[in-house]
Amino acid sequence: MRNFEVRELGLVPYGQAWDLQRELERRRKAGEIPDQLLLLEHPHVLTLGRNGKPEHLLVSRERLAELGIEFYEIDRGGDITYHGPGQIVGYPVIDLREWKRDVVAYVRGIEEVIIRALARFGIESWREPGATGVWTRAGKICAIGVHISRWVTTHGFALNWTTDLKYYQYIVPCGLPRPVTSMEALGVRPERGAVHQALIENFAEVFNYETAPVEAGA
Questions:
Q1: The domain spanning residue 107 has which CATH number?
Q2: What's the rounded Cα separation, in Å, for the pair 40 and 21?
């Protein structure tokens, strides 16, 4: 029976969360733990993926420091993105050998989780060809970037819930000069717990988990 653990961690500095992901990745590869889903928020931070272009950062590193925004170059796919309070970040650490050994199917699966979760709150969203993530009539609402090592995943998705969208002015989000939006900007502001529940239940459904998730601490 496949199951997974959910870790609802609150506000976590980016570096600390990255260290935790790598430790969980190591333990998952060793078979010490089941699949994981981390749900959390970050203080203001920009991350540049391994395929990202430095010119998509529109301000200097010095200016970022003045604004209190951290910056990391990381090993996920994708370009540059923003994380901050009011954004619900999900980091699945799962072994794809027990689901599908298919990277594209995994990314499409994450998109499906988000699309189904948003539908619960009356938000219509969709995929767009050639533009990974989840989109709405007002723009992109969820960014996705993943890393896979020996079929174990890290990194994941960033869903704009009550995100302060002004921070996107400092980047070309995901390398695409297109608008971004949030659930709140679309006139929908459910409780964080309700969004978490929608994500957890749809994650279980899309990725074919047969047992209810076990709540786990950090």
A1: 3.30.930.10
A2: 12
Listing DSSP states for 42-110 in one string gives -SSEEEE-TT--GGGB-S-HHHHHHHT-EEEE-SSSSSEEEE-TTEEEEEEE-BGGGS-S-HHHHHHHH
Distances (CA, A) of 166 to 82, 163, 181: 10, 9, 10
How many structural domains does the chain have?
Answer: 1
Q: pLDDT tens across 13-31, in order?
A: 999 999 999 999 999 999 9
Question: Is residue 142 among the annotated active site residues?
Answer: no
Q: Which helix (H) or strand (E) holds 18?
A: helix 14-29
The residues near 19 (Cβ < 8 Å, ≥ 6 apart) are none
Residue 152 belongs to domain spanning: 4-210
Would you mind telling me the total number of residues written for the chain in this entry?
218
pLDDT tens figures, 68-114: 999 999 989 888 999 999 999 999 999 999 999 999 999 999 999 99
User: How far, in Å, are 58, 65, 79, 123, 130 from residue 168 at the CA level?
Assistant: 10, 16, 13, 22, 21
Choose the catalytic residue: 20, 46, 110, 174.
174
